[in-house]
Amino acid sequence: MRNGMSDPLSPASLFALGLFAALWLIAGLWAVGRGIAMQRRSAFVAGQTERLASLVEASPQLPVIVRADWRIEAGERLGRWLGLDGGPRNFDELRGLDAGLDAAGHEALRQAILGAQRGAKPFTLNLTPRGGSRTIVFQGMAAPPAVGGPGSVLLWLSDATDGQQALVRARAERDEAMAAFEALSGLIEAAPFPMWFRETDMRLALVNAAYVRAVEAKSAAAVIDEGTELCEPVAGVSATDAAEAARAAGSAQQRTVPVTIEGERRIMRVVDVPLAPEGGRVIGIAGYAIDIQELESERGAHRRFVDTQRELLDRLSAAVAQFGPDQDLVFANLPFRRLFAIGADEVAEARSFARLLDAWRDAGRTPEVRDYPQWRQAHVDWFARAEAGEEEWLLRDGTHLHVVAQPTPDGGLLLIAEDRTEQVQLASTRDTLLRVRTATFDNLFEAVAVFASDGRLHLWNQRFRRLWSVDEPTLAAHPRVDQLMNGLADRLAKPNQVSIVQEVIRAATLERQQRVGQIRFRDGRHFDFAAIPLPDGNALLIMLDVTDSRKIEGALRERNEALEAADKVKTAFLSRMSYELRTPLTSIGGFAEMLQAGYAGKLGEQQQAYVDAIIDSVGVLSRQIDNVLDLAQGEAGTLAIERAPVDVRALLDAALGDAAALAEGEKVELVGQLADGLGRIDGDAPRLSRLFAGLLDNAIRYTAPARRGDGRVLLHADGDARGVEIVVSDNGPGLPEAVAAVTRGEQAGTQSGGIGLALARQLVAAHGGTMEVLSEKGQGTLVRIHLPRGA
Known about the structure:
48% helix, 22% strand, phosphorelay sensor kinase activity, Sig_transdc_His_kin-like_C
């Protein structure tokens, strides 16, 4: 039905129309759903954008975009950070007069942004705004095109004020720590004793140079690589075991072990220290070893010294006790224990000083005081004193103690007590002796002065002061000898003689030699003086007034001169008379011998007896004249001895033969005991013959009248290599005192025995021998003569 009413729709059309409607509905529904989704997404994005904006605002970093035309996109914080009134909108607004960046900082930022725009080169700048103390870090880079467009630069600004200061402090602390670490490392390396560090596995990780030298290794690396240990295992404990024990204990552990260092055995104190920072886990074990060989040696020496000192203190006479810092008795020597009646058990008990004072008080070994508690506390305070204290204790039994309390450096006390009872008594006696000495000095007849070794006047008596007319204050000033004597020179007749006094005193004090001298005062007095060295180094000057002695000496000298003149006259007279007597005597003897020989005819018996008597008398008188002449020459010192070898036995035999007739006539037994070894001596034979004959003659003549037929004279002679000894003895009455005086050379005499013995002594002396005469009244006389072999 194309030309009328329209034809009804075909099914296909209806299907298409329905399909289209369905599609349209579906599209509408999808569009609605899409719109809702987009709305939700938009709301999410908006919320996310707000959150990001808040996050950026709260972030410590501020983003800034600088576009190619130098416009700026940034928040308000940029203005606050730079001290500007508002947020800048272009780059030039970043620089202000009183705020913002200064010219140098602004230009530096501009150049950095240009570099980032042209070469996409990032940069970092630290800039400080004007008038502030902030430090702002500018970190810039080329921005993505989507962010700011082409040529834009993204800046991130952060306030690094606190961080920069902390960084500066951190850097300073780091530098200090590094310097300290380097110093500590240098110190450890330069340490003179071995040091090391072990890691947690107990292996060596670090050693110093001293460790390397101790183990004689090439280097520290070689020690670590080879694990060379300094300490050898002791009692099964190695060095790593000791370090492990220190880690387990959590504290330093030390031990003393022998170690071989550079080939020498030493005693070392080894310390292992676990390292745990702030009490955390142990990160390693540090160790060091200190050589205590000398310390141990010194300790041993100190112990030996203490033992020796205590042994020595036991030998001292002074009482010594030692108290420790706790005021307990540590040591007391034997004198101390005896003096204070302390037993060995009390010393071992280590009683306190205060308790000992109480015990001593009860035993009467402390002085009597009014307030004992106060006295006791004052002595207990000795321990706190800085210097020694000294006291004198007078005990009840009269004992005087000198007590010295010496604080020791360790807080203890050394107590020394010395019994001075005897010294006090001696001091009293000395004072008495000094007073006696002073009184004695002042009453001496001599003037006495004592000079010290330095020449100063030390002591003097009143006679010395009066002798030199010196006042007491001058002498009390103890002047030197030169000063004293120079002021006294005008008292002498010859003032320069004062130097003689000074010289003898100097010789006595310095040279320790005794000297004497003589001086004369102006008033005519004469003094002999002597300086005598004393044992204490001083010199004693003694001056004796010899004025009267000088006068007597002068008179004696005049008398002696007169006696000498008279003696010379006597000697001359004797010599002359001996010569004058010898001449007629020789004539008488000659004529008598002629008569005896019969030149005048034969003589009768009576005449012959007369002639024999004359000849005998002439011989005796001739010998007496010879004796007198020899005696006179001996006294005058002119006796001449003619020396020649003399047979001593022949001389003695001849003397015995000549004396036999006299002995027989006097009824005296004459005995000769002559040894075989008499030999010869050098001497004058005639004079020796007269010597022996005279001794025998005197012995016979003195013995005969007293013994009446039972007298006995002995001649004994013996010899050796040095000389001969001749003894003539008798049992007569002994020599008279006058004759004995002659033999001693005390006085002259007229007795023939005295003259004979005196002459015998001179003849023996002239031959270089000695003569000894022993006589006892009623017992007899003995004459012993010793004559040497040579002159």
